[in-house]
Amino acid sequence: MRIIETKRAPNPRRVAIFLAEKGIDVPREERDLMSGDLRQDDFSALNPWQRVPVLVLDDGTAISESVAICRYFEEIHPEPPLFGTGAIGKAEVEMWNRRVELGLFNAVASVFRHLHPKMAHLEVPQVTPWGEANKEKVESELTRLDRRLAESDFVAGASFSIADITALVAIDFMKPAKLAAPEGHAHIMRWYQEVSARPSASA
Amino acid sequence: MRIIETKRAPNPRRVAIFLAEKGIDVPREERDLMSGDLRQDDFSALNPWQRVPVLVLDDGTAISESVAICRYFEEIHPEPPLFGTGAIGKAEVEMWNRRVELGLFNAVASVFRHLHPKMAHLEVPQVTPWGEANKEKVESELTRLDRRLAESDFVAGASFSIADITALVAIDFMKPAKLAAPEGHAHIMRWYQEVSARPSASA
After folding, report:
1. I want to staple A84 with a disulfide (CB 3.0 to 4.6 A). Which of A93, A191, A200, B113 is the partner?
2. Other CB atoms closer than 10 Å to residue B158's CB: what's the count?
3. Do B68 and B158 fall into the same domain?
4. Measured between alpha carbons, how far is A8 from A16 in angstroms, rounded to an integer?
5. Which of A49, A57, A90 has the CB atom closest to B71's CB atom?
6. Which of A54, A67, A130, A136 to mutate to test the interface with B (most CBs of B within 10 A)?
7. Looking at beta carbons, which residues of chain A come within 8 Å of B53?
8. pLDDT tens sequence across A53-76
9. Which value does ipTM take for this structure?
10. With contact defined as beta carbons under 8 Å apart, do B201 and B168 qualify?
């Protein structure tokens, strides 16, 4: 098996951290999303949505979408559990991962995609007022996340989970999106220092 | 347990169809998202993101995000499986559900939220050029979905799954979003007629 990725892009990083937490090593193959390389026919055949990462299994099956790739590894390598345990625990991790992804992560990504000059040839059309509206959304999502982390060690509860990975990658993605670090949010900063210090954060 | 929902809103409908496919009956409580009722303190305490549906368990645990609610019921009532079976099958359902949700479903919702006059008091700010850009995205997502359904009985493969529910709800949501039905896409229409004829579609 192998993973096709663009190093340093946020979604491939989610999978890289997930695998590092599990202690799984998978060969990586680099393709540069910024150059339009994902629009080549051979890559589109693997993922018609033309995005990285893609996990290619030995039988040729191609799995894209980072959460789907992580789900595959959770199934074949359950320890440590990163999608929660028990019916309620699994639902809570899914809920928190979605809240962070559909909220903060997507808002930061929208600022990057719709305002950064480097994205003009990939995000067509760039919609400047949409990028601006998402700057406000980033703030409201950070406020909600800070309230959560005031009462919980990790995003989804007492244990580190995929929701922490999504939140960590979202916050680190604020820098290329030219958004100021969330230093005014004390609970986020407490949590951020902890999760950033895990060896997986540099995977 | 009970589910708090707004009848006819797309995300509560995803859960309603899912439960009908499982044969599970859960009491429903109506709150009208259009009136701003979800911004009341009692509801915000259940879901700080102020969205329906929310599943409230007997111990008071509140699960929001429709896919997380569905995941809970998949765990406690596995048959028939709607999130796939086996590591590859589960990853493929997750991949397809995400492709449809982050693609078609979100694009249709963005058209509705950013262009419909009825949404002006809820979607602040409405970004008209973003709504317009999503009309084009709906078309490209339909084209990809049509290609998939040319080669597959259901969205995620040979079996009906949560990905079909997400796609069905997205397509039915095109009407309130004032988008024309996808009649030019023959494979989507073949599939649409089949899934619409299931008893769960009217749940």
Report:
1. A93
2. 9
3. no
4. 10
5. A90
6. A130
7. none
8. 999 999 999 999 999 999 999 999
9. 0.97
10. yes
Sign (positive/negative) of CA torsion B60, B61, B65, B71? Answer: negative
A81: in domain: no
Structure tokens at B186: 């023959």
Question: How far does A48 lie from chain B, in Å, by closest CA?
Answer: 7
B143: pLDDT confidence band, cut at 50, 70 and 90? very high
* B168 and B121 belong to one structural domain: yes
**Mean pLDDT in residue range B6-22:** 96
| Count: domains in chain A | 2
Give the distance from residue A69's alpha carbon to the nearest chain B alpha carbon, in angstroms.
7
Q: Do A70 and A96 belong together in one domain?
A: no
B170-199 pLDDT, tens digit per residue, is 999 999 999 999 999 999 999 999 999 999
Give chain A's contact residues with B (Cβ, < 8 Å): 48-49, 57, 61, 63-65, 67-69, 71-72, 75-76, 86-88, 90-92, 94-95, 98-99, 103, 125, 127, 129-130, 133, 144, 147-148
Domain at A105, CATH number = 1.20.1050.10
- The residue segments making up the domain with residue B170 are 86-202
Same domain, A54 and A113: no
Do B101 and B57 lie in a common domain?
no
β-bridge mates for residue B157, sequence order = B154
B188: in domain: yes
Mean pLDDT of A140-161: 98
Residue type, position A89, single letter: G
Whether B196 is covered by a domain: the verdict is: yes
State which amino acid sits at residue A40.
Q
Per-residue pLDDT at B105 exceeds 90? yes
